[in-house]
Amino acid sequence: MASIAGGTVGLHDARRKVRWSVELEPFEIGVYPVTQEQVAELLGETAVHPRRPATDVSWLRAIRFCNAASEWEGLEPAYTYDGEDVTWHVDSDGFRLPTEAEWEFACRAGSTRPHYGPLEEVAWTSADGVTAPQDVGGKHPNLNGLFDTLGNVWEWCWDLLDPARYDAYRVFRGGGFADDAWSVRASVRRGGAPRMHHDDVGFRVARGGFDATDAAQGWSAAADEERAAIDGPLPSGWTPRG
Hints:
This is Sulfatase-modifying factor protein. One of its GO terms (molecular function) is formylglycine-generating oxidase activity. Pfam families: FGE-sulfatase. The chain has helices at about 35-45, 60-70, 100-110, 120, 165, 220-230, and strands spanning about 1-5, 5-15, 20-25, 25-30, 80, 85-90, 155-160, 170-175, 190, 200, 205, 215, 220. With about 240 residues, the chain is of the alpha+beta class. A hairpin with a 4-residue loop joins strand 2 and strand 3 (about 20-25). The relative contact order is 0.20.
C-alpha cells in the first residue's frame, strides 16, 4: 500500500457535461492491482499466472475480496451486503475499493495531462501487441510509486457510473492491454453491471476510514439518488432502473 496525501482533484462527466472538484483526505491505495496469487490465497481460486492482475472479477467479487482481506488482517470489514445491495461503512479502516476521485488523484500523481508519463513507458496498451494482461510492475510507476494505473487492466471503483442512464453500473478506470491511447487516460470513465466480468477488468484496493455516514472522498449516497432522478420515461437505449 502507498500513502497518498490529501489534495484536490477535478472530475468530469462527459454525458452530463459537468465538471467538479473534490477535496480528499489522506488515504492508502495498492501499489499494484490485486494479483491472481492474492485472489487465490484469500478466495481459494487457482492462480494460473500468479503475478498477473486478477481479471474476470466482477465488482461484487472485488467487494468480497476486500472484506476477506480485512478479516485476514484483523481489520473491520468495510462492507456489508445482501445480494447486489452493498453498504460501505465509511468509518471502517478495512480494505475497500477506491472512490473514483481517489483513483484519479492517485493515478495522476500531480499531473494534469492525460498520462503521467510517455504511454509506452508506463502502460501496457494495444501498441504493445500483447494478447493478455501482463505481470504487474513491468512498466514505470507514477510519482506516487503506483504501477499499472494506466493500461494492463481496467480497475473497479466504488462509485456508480451514471445511475440515471445505467442504473447499478459501477465505474472502472484506467484502460487495458487491448485499448488504444484514447481510452488509456487518467480521466476516462467506463463501467459495468456489478456481476459483469471481463478479461481486461481487475481492481486495486484502498484503505482509509472517515468520520462520516454514507459519504466520503467525493462520493455520497445522497448524490447518487440525485443523479438517478429523471422525469418522464427513460430515453431509448437507457438501462431500466431496478
